[in-house]
Input
Amino acid sequence: MGGSIKAYLHLMRMKNVILASITVPLGAQFAVGDAWLSDQLLEVIAQIFAVIFFIGAGNTMNDIKDVDIDREAHPERPLASGAISINSAQNFVKVLWLMSIICLFIGAYSLHKDGNSVIELLTIYILAVTLMLTYDHGPELKNTGLKGNISISIMVGAVILYGASSVGNLWTTLVWWTAGVVFFANLAREIIKDCQDMEADEGVRQTLPMTYGLVKSRMLAYVIVMAALVCLYVPYWKGPFEFNQLFFQTPAILMLITLNRELAEGKDYQAAAKIRTAMLLGLIGFIIPMYV
Output
C-alpha cells in the first residue's frame, strides 16, 4: 500500500475515530462501574480496537466514494490530494475490516468464557455493519439526506451501547440516555455539515439543506440539539445521579445552548466543531459524578 503512515491516519480521520473509540470504555463504565478495569479489561480493549478499525474502514470507504466531491470540497484529504491511490485505499479497507472482526471475536470469546452473553455484542456489530454498507453501498443512504444522517448517527450512538455490551451489561438506563445524547448531537452535526457542503454536494447528493434550505435545516439542527440536552438532563432528574451534580454538565450545556449564534451567522464549520466538543464535554460530565 502506497502512502505515508500520516496519510493513512488522516484517511481514517483519527480525531473522529479516537473520539468514538473512547466511548467504548465509557459504555462499559456506565454499565458496570470500575469493575471492568479488573474483571473485563481484555474484553473492553478488544472492542476499543474493533471500533477503531471499524470506523477507520467506514471513513476510508466514504472517502473512496466521495473522492470526486472531495477534490472540490476537501482537497486536502489523502485521496483527493493524491497522497494515497484508490487501489491502496481499497486494500487498506480490507485490512481494517479483517482486524476489526478479529478483535470482535477475541472479545466475544472472552465474554463467553466468563459466562456472559455475546448476543448483544454480536447484534450491535452486525447492525452497525449493515448500516455502514447501506450508507455507502446498496441503497446508498448517504445520498438520501436525512435518512443518511440518521443512519450514521445511529452508528455513532451505538458505540456507547457496544461498550456496555462488551462487558455483558447493555440494559443499564444510564447507558441508553448517554447513547441518546450522542445520537442527537451527532445528527445535528451531520445536518450542519450538509449545510457546509451544500454547493459541493449539488448534483451528487440530495441533502436536507437542498430540499428545505439552509435556514430551515439549521433551525432543525438546533431543535435536535435541544433533544440531546433533554437526554443529558434526565439522568440527573431520574437518577442515577443527584440533581445538583448537573453542575458538571455546565460547559456542555452552555456550548449547545449558545450554538444558535453560529447557526444564525451561517458559521457551519464552527457550529459542527462546537457540537463535537460539547459531546466530549458531556461525556466527561457523566464520568465526574461517578467519582465525587
Notes: The chain has 16 helices and no strands. The first helix runs from residue 5 to 12. The chain has a mean pLDDT of 91. The domain at 172-292 is CATH 1.20.120.1780 (Four Helix Bundle (Hemerythrin (Met), subunit A)).
